[in-house]
Amino acid sequence: MRRVIHALTPGDHFSPRTGSAIPTVVHGIASASADDPDYAHSVLVESSTYRPRYTSAASIEYAGRGYPASWERAVDLGLSRLGLPRVRSRRSYGPLVDAIDAREPGIVIAHNAPVLPEMIAATPHAVIYYAHNDLPRGMSRHEATRMLGAAVAVVVVSDDLADRIAARVSPSVSQQIRVVENGVDTDAFQPPVRTESGDRTRVMFVGRVVAEKGPDVLLRAVAALGRDDVDVVIVGSQGFDPKAALSPYEQELRALADAVPGTVSFRPFVDRAALPGQLQSADVFVAPSRWAEPSGLTIGEAMATGLPVIASDIGGIPSVIGDAGLLVEPGDAPALAAGLGALLDDDSRRAALGARARERAQARSWAHTWTQLRGVLDESAD
């Protein structure tokens, strides 16, 4: 049996109490591979992080130093431009590497940690770099090639991200890039049982409430529609603390809500257990991101819930949606309003898109993700 050790960002929580994407992905992969006799999963987590922990992978705890602060990252950027190692990042990841140095050789999956492959190379373990986002800004082609060149493979979550990273490394490293698409838990996220439809339509956004995610675009679009039969629900907070004070952007959204003829409700961040119920209460899901998201986990979860989805045509989002949703230009409130208006007036189209969304989600479950990742792991063993 091969041992797969997932390395999370120092300080990240392997717990359903967080909405962080990477722990969700690791939990999905480990759960889907539970019956695979050839691989066993564990995860490196700082001992101070949230409990309860997911039980899908065994926890390897260590006393960490936390993720580098902004000033430390600035120092590292300056050092990298001089061709020197990123010492603050290496300091942060050092306890993680120490925790596995004496363990039986396995394969470490370094999630969003380009500094790790070189550090793991000094241990008995092999390493795969798993990119959920683009490489850090300011990282040169030479530095990226050196760091990722120490990995036996580079996994990315979409074709869009594959192209972006390939453009930033050497041809030899780009040949090691493999796409492993994010999945969705189609058992946890299912369409609700509805006996009748109401006179109002609930349009929902779920995610971090920051400008890059675009909830203001949704509010502007619904205001432009001028309809009082639409209820907008924005679920999320700036971060993962539902009790945090409102950011200036969150306050701005509440001012924008005053121009919406229907109702607008704001619900703070909810944990993983509460999310399926939130989505089941919606009629339409909107992901108006301005940011080129490599892959939208929540979009997949909305699709698994059988919701018609309208999302931005940017980054890896189109590859998640396929032909099972509507795409609009990012930041274009009039285009989003037009798309929403078309769905609001066509119940049969909403139902058809929702059915297609559910079907596509079922084909892209975490079992599909594990099949793709297992292929990479098997290839690395050859």
UniProtKB/TrEMBL annotation:
Location of the Glycosyltransferase subfamily 4-like N-terminal domain: 87-187
Stretches assigned to coiled coil: none
Top-level taxon of the source organism: Bacteria
Domain Glycosyl transferase family: 195-360
Keywords associated with the record: Capsid protein, Glycosyltransferase, Transferase, Virion
Pfam family, one: Glyco_transf_4
EC number: 2.4.-.-
InterPro entries: Glyco_trans_1, Glyco_trans_4-like_N
Record PANTHER family: BLL3647 PROTEIN, GLYCOSYLTRANSFERASE
Name of the protein in its database record: Spore coat protein SA
Organism: Microbacterium terrae
Taxonomic classification: Bacteria, Bacillati, Actinomycetota, Actinomycetes, Micrococcales
